[in-house]
Design goal:
The complex is a heterodimer.
Chain A: H1 2-7, H2 11-26, E1 38-39, H3 42-48, E2 50-51, E3 55-58, E4 61-66, E5 70-73, E6 81-100, E7 116-119, E8 122-129, E9 140-160, H4 166-179, E10 196-198, E11 203-204, H5 205-226, H6 232-255, H7 267-273, H8 279-291, E12 297-301, H9 308-317, E13 321-324, E14 332-333, E15 340-341, E16 348-352, E17 362-369, E18 372-377
Parallel strand pairs in A: 12-13, 12-16
Antiparallel strand pairs in A: 1-9, 2-5, 3-4, 4-9, 5-9, 6-7, 6-8, 6-9, 10-11, 14-15, 16-18, 17-18
Helix pairs in contact in A: 2-6, 5-6, 7-8, 8-9
Chain B: H1 2-20, H2 28-52, H3 60-80, H4 102-125, H5 136-146, H6 151-160, H7 162-166, H8 169-175, H9 181-203, H10 208-219, H11 222-228, H12 233-254, H13 257-270, H14 277-294, H15 296-299, H16 301-330, H17 332-343, H18 351-370, H19 377-387, H20 389-394, H21 398-418, H22 420-424, H23 429-432, H24 434-471, H25 478-485
Classes of the chains: A alpha+beta, B mainly alpha.
Chain lengths: 378, 487
């Protein structure tokens, strides 16, 4: 019985999900505030946390200076949600996930589902539902990754502790998975989402909606046989509209919190502001477009094996000729191997997160941060 | 600004083309979106053929020449026929724009309008490469703007197709400045045009219920809606196929020969989107041509002359494509199928590939029914087809359903046989389904609304037939009884 309640197989689960979906649609897609959050004292937390960069710890604050991807593992095993009050400067992207407390193996944080928030400069508060991430369990600890450039300081942290028993764990996981917004990431165009009906029982919402449709059609068909006033085609249409409307409600409720609804009129501002999960890259692309003349031949570079940033930069700098700078190579090759540049042909270098020094003869002319800049030949 | 200039130029050129082919409907609400599809198709074909067959560089002058060609031809025809009496126009039935019952259709219309708004805002607001580093189909128009086609650039062209390559580049060509968001704009404009055509076409013929049902059905495909906000060309292909399918469905209802020709014209445009555009458009064209062949006596010989005239540019397209990217680049799926067939029985196939094939079936079914990429569409489609099987032939809907079936079969063959690995890892199977899903959703909407309308009409007729009987006097009407007794 407990399992059934937790798994969401009964009628009460149906109505609960329906009510939650409607609430999500009607009240701005926000989560209802719920009690049960606990305060985490920051100084002891900072001492027990792990990071790949130095942690700034003090009374009432826990911070990181971000210039490279900076991870922070908080020792709060089984935490379901985090509510972080923070102060941020610069351009920062916060990715959240969980890490196995025993093995300490870091997660593939880019998912799917890829869960992230862009942090606006200044003071702010962000609420992170860790159950929405892949592989959440009560054995795992919160994992935060900060990318970009700037300072991030946690000034207050509250968390929802692990559920008391296994049934509650399943219920919490199922509720969260059902309501989770679509995580727009690198693979979303391939598979938008496959919404769960019950993640713990591994049943999908659309199987349930399909069965609901077939059930409604069966009822309609019986009614059509019993009464000449109800046509079968009308019964099918009615069932189709109801099932589709339910599907649409879920889709909108999950899509709207994920998409960028701001619409700057200036295309340059759209490039600068609307790079969802690469804000520093977007800012650099916009800066380079503004800085470099249309006829420049550009070499771009990033950290070793990063193909994403060079291609984004070259794409946004087109129609300028553009290729990825490979130290020591006789020829640099651009996206889809269309553009090829010899080192002496390069007029400008756009660099992000590269530890290599600038090639001789180039000087910085503009920068987003110390590690993201535009240089031109002197 | 240059995008709106390009939008207007493509629309005007498309309208002139429709007038030239005598395929305009005479309704501004229909002809405006129809002109966008026709104009973009003509411009892409003209620019592509001029560049790769005639060897002319893509300049502002050639772009304007291509745009002006239909209007020039129209003017020449008008000049040659000056003084002749205008051809008589068939009387159009009055349009009806408000669907009935309004309480049912108003929420459906509101949902479609809301989705269109979200697509407009998110689609135009998202950086052009969206979630990819380099969007090949958005890179192709940039290469067209540069007009330098080395071997690697031609591979990009082959992947993108002529339409996504040339249409977004027109504004850049006219203004001399590249604004990446024209790629986003071209896709959003095509979607808005599809919605406008879906609503206006049946409404202008007195069936607004069908129009709004179309709009609701298309907007209820989650992955399609999301894709429209990216610059992947799968949604663009689905949009063109959807527009062509709308005319095919109208041909199914009214049997008007011009609707079949309009559908063929738009299928030609769809064939220029992506490498697989040709196969997808060909599937719908096969069903359409089967229907017109079946009805050849009714349609008459002139119809087939006009159909041939519309299909003729396809040969130009093929020749230009071979000239641009060679035989293998021009027909990549033929090459893939030949390679797959050459592998023969499972023996020479590696263990991994065998595993892929064995898993591909269940992955395909999951993609169709459980993933939600197409909402509940594929639960509804078989139910409608089976439960209303007897009505299919009566309502001439079997041909359009046949088109959907061929499209679905194509996707199944590709997913299960040609590229099973991409089905197992779910990387392409959902995107491939988009044109099928759009066509299937339109078909379901048309079939159900038409079924209900017929049912209501037949009830109305029965009611009318019963009405005089009801007006007959009852037992208590003595005066009438008296009259009845009279000889």
């Amino acid at each position: 019985m407990a399992r059934r309640r937790a798994g969401g197989g009964g009628g009460s689960a149906w109505s609960g999900r329906l009510a939650a979906s409607l609430a999500l649609l009607l009240f701005g897609c926000g989560r209802p505030e719920s009690p049960g959050m606990q305060d985490a004292p920051l100084l002891p937390l900072a001492k027990a946390s792990w990071s790949n960069v130095p942690i700034r710890a003090g009374e009432g604050e826990l911070g990181l200076d971000v210039e490279q991807p900076s991870a922070l593992v908080l020792p709060i095993r089984g935490a379901q949600e985090l509510e972080i009050e923070y102060q941020a400067s610069g351009i920062l992207l916060l990715t959240y996930n969980t890490v196995d407390a025993e093995s300490g193996k870091l997660p593939d944080h880019r998912g799917p589902p890829y869960r992230y928030r862009r942090l606006a400069p200044g003071r702010g508060r962000v609420r992170l539902d860790l159950r929405e991430t892949a592989n959440w369990s009560t054995r795992r600890e919160p994992y935060l990754l900060l990318e970009g450039s700037g300072r991030f300081t946690i000034t207050g942290l509250r968390y929802r502790p692990r559920p008391p028993d296994e049934a509650s764990v399943r219920a919490a996981l199922d509720r969260s998975a059902f309501l989770a917004p679509i995580a727009i990431g690198y693979t979303t165009v391939n598979l938008l989402y496959a919404p769960w009906w019950s993640q713990s029982e591994r049943t999908f919402l659309y199987d349930r909606l399909g069965l609901l449709f077939l059930g409604l059609v069966a009822v309609g068909a019986v009614a059509a046989l019993a009464s000449r006033r109800i046509p079968l085609v009308g019964a099918i249409a009615g069932a189709a509209i109801l099932a589709t409307a339910a599907s649409d409600a879920v889709f909108l409720a999950k899509l709207l919190p994920s998409v960028e609804l701001t619409f700057p009129l200036d295309p340059e501002a759209r490039i600068r502001e609307n790079h969802r999960y690469a804000p520093k890259l977007g800012a650099l692309a916009a800066l380079a477009r503004r800085t470099l003349p249309p006829g420049d031949r550009v070499a771009v570079r990033s950290f070793p094996n990063d193909w994403f940033a060079p291609e984004v930069l070259c794409f946004n700098l087109a129609p300028r000729r553009c290729a990825t700078l490979a130290p020591g190579a006789a020829e640099y090759v651009g996206p889809s191997q269309v553009d090829r540049l010899r080192p002496d042909e390069v007029d400008a270098v756009v660099s992000i997160d590269s530890a290599e020094p600038l090639p001789p003869g180039f000087a910085r002319v503009a920068e987003v941060s110390p590690g993201a800049y535009v240089a031109r030949r002197r | 600004m240059s995008f709106f200039l390009a939008l207007a130029a493509l629309g005007a050129s498309g309208y002139a083309l429709l007038r030239l082919l005598r395929l305009e409907t005479g309704r501004a609400a229909v002809d405006t979106p129809f002109s966008w599809f026709a104009g973009t198709g003509f411009f892409a074909l003209g620019s592509f053929v001029l560049r790769f067959l005639a060897g002319l560089r893509y300049t502002r002058a050639t772009a304007v020449t291509v745009l002006a060609l239909p209007a020039a031809a129209l003017a020449v025809r008008a000049f040659r026929r000056r003084g002749a009496a205008p051809a008589p126009q068939a009387a159009e039935p009055p349009g009806r724009w408000l669907p009935r019952p309004l309480w049912l259709f108003a929420p459906l219309a509101a949902y479609a309008a809301g989705v269109a708004l979200v697509v407009f805002q998110v689609g135009l607001g998202t950086p052009t490469q969206t979630d990819d580093a380099l969007r090949v189909r958005a890179f192709a128009p940039i290469l067209a703007f540069r007009d330098e086609w080395n071997e690697a650039a031609r591979v990009v062209l082959s992947m993108a197709g002529a339409l996504p390559t040339y249409v977004p580049s027109l504004g850049w060509r006219l203004s001399g400045r590249v604004d990446h968001f024209h790629v986003n704009g071209a896709i959003v404009a095509s979607f808005i045009a599809l919605l406008a055509l879906a609503v206006a076409l049946p409404s202008s013929r007195g069936r607004p219920e069908r129009g709004w049902a179309y709009a609701f059905a298309v907007c209820s495909l989650p992955l399609f809606v999301y894709h429209l906000t990216t610059t992947y060309a799968d949604a663009l292909l689905a949009t063109y196929v959807g527009a062509a399918f709308l005319f095919f469905l109208e041909f199914g209802v009214g049997g008007e020969p011009d609707d079949a020709l309009r559908s063929l014209l738009l299928l030609l445009a769809a064939a220029m989107v992506k490498r697989e555009g040709e196969l997808v458009a060909g599937a719908v064209a096969a069903a359409l041509l089967a229907q017109v062949t079946w009805e050849r006596r009714r349609l008459g010989t002139p119809f087939f002359w006009r159909a041939g005239l519309i299909c003729l540019p396809y040969l130009l397209l093929v020749v230009a494509r071979v000239a641009a990217v060679g035989w293998e680049g021009a027909f990549p799926f033929v090459g893939a199928a030949a390679r797959q067939a050459a592998q023969g029985a499972p023996a020479p196939v590696g263990r991994e590939a065998l595993l892929d094939r064995s898993l591909a079936g269940s992955a395909f079914l999951w993609a169709v029914f459980s993933s939600g990429s197409a909402g509940v569409l594929y639960w509804i489609l078989p139910a409608v087809a089976v439960l209303q099987f007897r009505s299919l032939a009566q309502r001439r809907a079997a041909w359009t359903l046949g088109a959907v079936a061929i499209l679905l079969a194509e996707v199944a063959v590709t997913s299960l046989w040609l590229f099973p690995r991409f089905t197992v890892d779910q990387s392409t199977v959902h995107r491939q389904m988009l044109p099928v899903s759009v066509a299937a959703s339109l078909w379901i909407a048309a079939f159900l609304v038409e079924g209900i309308a017929e049912r209501r009409a037949s009830r109305g007729e029965r009611g009318e037939r019963r009405a005089p009987a009801a007006a007959r006097p009852g037992k208590g009407d003595r005066r009438a009884k008296g009259r009845k007794r009279r000889p």
